[in-house]
Amino acid sequence: MPKLDIQISVEDEGWPDGPALLALGERVLGAAAGFLAKEEGQPFPDMAPELSLVFTNDASIREINAEWRGKDKPTNVLSFPAFPLEPGGMPGPMLGDIVIARETVEREAVDLEKTFEDHLTHLLVHGFLHLFGYDHMETDEAEEMEGLETRILAMLGLSDPYAGQDPIV
């Protein structure tokens, strides 16, 4: 199974403590990396690629979203690949950053009738796939990415978050 070097930053007091978030990140992203390597033939460098997880709040992610995407509103997760990567391409020593907003995750979890941890798990997988070049801007891309998310989440014991929906583009 591929190894990852995960760095975390907790920027909001409402999140669980750092060690709990790191353990969740290691479990979820380790499973996602293993799935990509085994099922998708994703190559991994010999050294464990590094990525950072930033656990923040709506105000902070709103600023980031406005600056980088031109959308002046909070969002649940943003991913910033360190280097452009096509799905199936060899990642470098740094994968990139995943930024997640606590309040949005909490609201969405309630709306979706899921636990906070289950929804956070889904968003970690979603953000991780973006670091590997997967996207959902076009219907065929969305179908591929959502299919991968669903299969990874099933490995983690979670149901299909897209059941009964059209691909989200």
From TrEMBL:
UniProtKB keywords: Cytoplasm, Endonuclease, Hydrolase, Metal-binding, Nuclease, Ribosome biogenesis, rRNA processing, Zinc
Matches recorded under Gene3D superfamilies: Metalloproteases ('zincins'), catalytic domain
Cofactor info, note text: Binds 1 zinc ion.
Recorded superkingdom: Bacteria
EC number, UniProt record: 3.1.-.-
Binding site for Zn(2+): 126, 130, 136
Cofactor(s) annotated in UniProt: Zn(2+)
Enzyme category, top tier: hydrolase
Pfam families in alphabetical order: YbeY (PF02130)
Compartment(s): Cytoplasm
PANTHER family, sorted: ENDORIBONUCLEASE YBEY, CHLOROPLASTIC (PTHR46986:SF1)
NCBIfam families named in the record: rRNA maturation RNase YbeY
Function: Single strand-specific metallo-endoribonuclease involved in late-stage 70S ribosome quality control and in maturation of the 3' terminus of the 16S rRNA.
Family in the record: Belongs to the endoribonuclease YbeY family.
Full protein name: Endoribonuclease YbeY
Origin species: Rhizobium puerariae
